[in-house]
Structure formats: structure tokens, C-alpha cells
Amino acid sequence: MKKIILPLAMFTSLLSYDLTQFYKDYQEGEYLTACRQGVKIFEEHKRDENYLSLYSFACLKSNMIDRLAVPLIGLRETKEARANASYFATILLQKKILYHSVVDNVDISGLVLPTTDYILSRVFDMYVNKEYSFDDKTYTFIDTQKDLKYKMYIEHGEKFKILIIEKYKDNQLIQTYEYY
After folding, report:
1. Cα–Cα distance between 95 and 90 in angstroms, integer?
2. Distance between CA 29 and CA 6 in Å, rounded?
3. Distance CA 105, CA 26 (A)
4. pTM (2 d.p.)
5. At 158, which helix (H) or strand (E)?
6. CB 69 within 8 A of CB 52
7. What percentage of the chain has pLDDT greater than the value 70?
8. d(CA 76, CA 116)
């Protein structure tokens, strides 16, 4: 019986995820892991604004923007936490509005929202201000401030349309973002 319990206990401990591991993953730039695994400890740490901020940044840096909705509600106690909540809410709102506009052909020109340093925010601003060319169902944006080019288009997924943003540097694709 002891032979079964010891390996089972070791296996169970390997499956656990705690705050220490979360911080380690974040510090090592393992943002996707921190976002995906951090949700397992969310309920336990939902009143810890440091955890909520880092969890949100990990999800943002791994492009899992929809996961920002729940933690931003808990960011309200300190000035820094409220600023972070506003930042995350802005990006989430821009994603939803941009998706709605492109997928449903809704005019949002003239809409003014705060600007952030996140790629989606930059593309949103250029889209709203009609700073793009449109050809063959693809929007092309030239970001002269950062010497980058973005291409945005829609793909049809199994259940949802997917808004794709590709980021280019010197005509080389460097990153692709997908939004639902």
C-alpha cells in the first residue's frame, strides 16, 4: 500500500501550482504558463492586488485578453491598481469594439478612447482614424513611430470569426495576434 501512496503523493504535488511558482514563471517570462496556471490559484489570491496585476499582465503578454475581465474588477484598492485596471479595461474594450467594427462592418470613426502602448491599442487608433489602406479584405497600417507595419483581416473559424493582426518589421512577419 505504501508503494502506491508515495508515487501518488509525488504525482499530485507535481500537478499543484502555487503563488511561488506563479511568480517564478512570470519573472522568467513564461507569461503563457503564468496566465494558464495562474487561474488555478485565482480564487485563493483574488484579493491580492499584486497577484491580480501580474496575472493580468501575464495574460496580456500572452495575448489572452479575454482573461483580463475578471481580475480588473478586483484592482481597486490602490492608485496603482486602479491605473492597471483602467489600462486592462481600455485594451479589452478596444478589442471588443475593433472586432465588432471589422466583423460586423460598423463605423467607429471618430471614437476616442485612451491610448495604450499595447499593439491592439495602436491598431485601434489607426483604424478609428482611417490611417490604413484596404485591399483584398486586408487592412494595412504603417506605424511610422515604431517603424512597423500591421496587417489585419478576418478568418473564419469553426464557431467564430477570428480577427487576425500580423506585425511586420522590415517586411518580415514577427508576430501574429488572434482575437475572437
Report:
1. 9
2. 33
3. 38
4. 0.86
5. none
6. no
7. 92
8. 19
Residue 159, SS3 per DSSP = coil
Give the number of other CB atoms < 10 A from CB of residue 114: 13
CA distances to 9, 14, 69 from 1, rounded to whole Å, are 12, 21, 46
Q: What cell does 171 get?
A: 517586411
137-141 long-range Cβ contacts below 8 angstroms, 24+ apart: 139/102
**Cα–Cα distance for residue pair 31/6, rounded to 1 Å:** 32
Grid cell of 130 as nine digits: 482611417
Q: Is 56 exposed, middle or buried (0-12, 13-18, 19+ CB in 10 A)?
A: buried
Q: Give residue 145's pLDDT.
A: 87
**Using H for helix, E for strand and C for coil, what is the string for 76-136?**
CCCHHHHHHHHHHHHHHHHHHHHHHHHHHCCCCCCCCCCCCCCHHHHHHHHHHCCCCEEEC
Q: Which helix (H) or strand (E) holds 3?
A: helix 2-15
User: What is the pLDDT, as a whole number, of residue 6?
Assistant: 43
Question: What pLDDT is stored for residue 16 in this prediction?
Answer: 83
Which amino acid is residue 29, in one-letter code?
G
Single out the residue of 158, 163, 74 nearest to residue 150, CA to CA: 163
